[in-house]
Amino acid sequence: MSTLPQKFYPVVDNAQWVDRLGAAGARFIQLRVKDMPEPELRAQVRLARDYAARHDVCLVLNDFWRIALDEGLSYIHLGQEDLDTADMTAIRNGRLQVGLSTHCQEELDRALTFEPDYVALGPIWETRLKKMAFGPQGVERLGEWKRQIGAMPLVAIGGITLERAPLCLQAGADCVSAVSAFTQQADPEGQVKAWIAATGR
């Protein structure tokens, strides 16, 4: 069973964040880029890949599994809707590690049939950054999920702040993911150091 490289997991929308946060000590970063023409998207992925190699970051690409294969990435993250069209045979043959989003029991059951390298549960708290069809799950659900998946890593996401992160880890999450806690702060590099201190390496 795979292990995750760090207990916190920034999600960013631009390759420059991989450089900045990676230089500050983040070692597990997801690039989630939306509504961008493919040539620009590929340029972002290549730049992020190079920054990740420079800083020893495990880079995860959201959604675009074909580009991840083309550009030699090692990790992707897929939502439930992506599973309807993703070629999991090609993904596994390309040795891509896979994280999957889940929001309810039915989605967890479905995700586990794909034998992912981690599952993410969210939103744990209410989040304004992404319109969600599901309400807050609460930290108690993390313990329920963890008991079901055993050694498979569990990522908590949605409304997670520096103060809330330890609560998620105590409840059963192996890793906590956040967006605005890094990219919308005055001192993102300082935030990385604070999260390292709060979650441990």
Question: Quick gist of this model?
Answer:
The chain is α/β, with parallel strands linked by helices and 201 residues long. The chain has nine helices and eight strands.
What does this structure look like?
The chain has 201 residues and is α/β, with parallel strands linked by helices. The protein has nine helices and eight strands. It has helices spanning 15-24, 38-55, 65-70, 88-93, 105-112, 139-149, 165-171, 180-183, 188-199; strands spanning 8-12, 28-31, 58-62, 75-78, 97-102, 118-121, 154-157, 175-178. It has an eight-stranded parallel barrel with strand order 1-2-3-4-5-6-7-8, surrounded by six helices. Helix 1 (15-24) runs parallel beside helix 2 and helix 1 (15-24) packs across helix 9.
Give the SSE layout.
Layout: E1 8-12, H1 15-24, E2 28-31, H2 38-55, E3 58-62, H3 65-70, E4 75-78, H4 88-93, E5 97-102, H5 105-112, E6 118-121, H6 139-149, E7 154-157, H7 165-171, E8 175-178, H8 180-183, H9 188-199
Parallel strand pairs: 1-2, 1-8, 2-3, 3-4, 4-5, 5-6, 6-7, 7-8
Shape: globular
Give the CA-CA distance, first to last residue.
19 Å
Strand portion: 15-25%
Uncertain segments of ≥5 residues (pLDDT<50)?
none
Number of separate strands: 8
- State mean pLDDT (0 to 100 scale): 94
Characteristics of this structure?
single chain, 201 residues, alpha/beta, 8-stranded parallel beta barrel, 9 helices, 18% strand, globular
